[in-house]
Amino acid sequence: MLQEFGFAPFQVVLLSVLCDREEITQWEVAQRASSDANTVKATLLLLERDGLLVRESHKEDRRGWVVAITVQGRRTQEEFSSVFKPLQDVLLSSLGVGRAEVLLADLHSLNEDMGRWEGR
Question: Domain named HTH marR-type: which ranges (predicted)?
Answer without folding.
Answer: 1-112
